[in-house]
Amino acid sequence: MKKLIKISSIIILCIGVIVLGIYIYLNIPRKIKIYGEYKQVHIKRETSGFVWRITGSKNSKDHLSKKFDVEMPEIDFNKYYLLYSDGRKIKEINYTIGSKYEWGYDVFKGVAVFEKKYYPHTVFFYLIEKVLVHQDFHL
C-alpha cells in the first residue's frame, strides 16, 4: 500500500511539472526582433497614436506605398515582415504562444510598447523578424 501511494505521488508530481511547463511555454512573453526604424513618413491626416499593423506580402507593401504616397525598396518577405505604426515610435512588440488560442484568429495577439512622444502627422515603418501578430483592440 505504501509503495502504491509513493508511485501515485510521483505520478501526480510528474503531471504537475508537465502542466506547469506547458503553462510557462504558452504564457511567457516573447519579443519580436525589430531591426531598427526603416522609414518615417509625414502625412496630412492626424494619426491616432496607438494603431500598428504588420504586413507580410509585396501586395500589402505596395498598398501601403500608395496609401502613404511613399516609395519603399524591395523587402525579402521570406525573411522579414513590415511593421508600421501610426503616430508613435514603437519600442517593442510582445506576444505569447498561448495568445493564438485566446481569440478566433490563427495569429498571435501582439502588445506594442510605444514611446511617449506623439507625432500627429507621422507614420513609422520598421523591418521585423517574420512573426505574424495582430493588435488586440480589446485591451
Strand and helix map with partners:
Elements (H helix, E strand, L loop, with lengths): L1 H26 L2 E2 L2 E9 L8 E5 L2 H10 L12 E7 L3 E6 L12 E7 L7 E8 L3 E3 L4
Parallel strand pairs: 6-8
Antiparallel strand pairs: 1-5, 2-7, 3-4, 4-7, 5-6
First-to-last CA distance: 52 Å
Residue-averaged pLDDT: 89
Taken from the alpha-carbon principal axes, the silhouette is elongated
Largest sheet: 4 strands, mixed
Alpha-carbon Rg, integer: 21 Å
User: What is the helical fraction, as a range of percent?
Assistant: 25-40%
Number of strands: 8
Describe this structure in words.
- The protein is an alpha+beta fold.
- The protein folds into two domains: 1-29; 32-135, no CATH class.
- Helices cover 26% and strands 34% of the residues.
- The chain has two helices and eight strands; from the N terminus they run αβββαβββββ.
- The strands form two sheets. It has a four-stranded mixed sheet with strand order 1-5-6-8, with no helix packed on it.
- The radius of gyration is 21 Å and the shape is elongated.
- The termini are far apart.
- The mean pLDDT is 89.
Keywords:
139 residues, alpha+beta, 2 domains, 4-stranded mixed sheet, 4-stranded antiparallel sheet, 2 helices, 26% helix, elongated
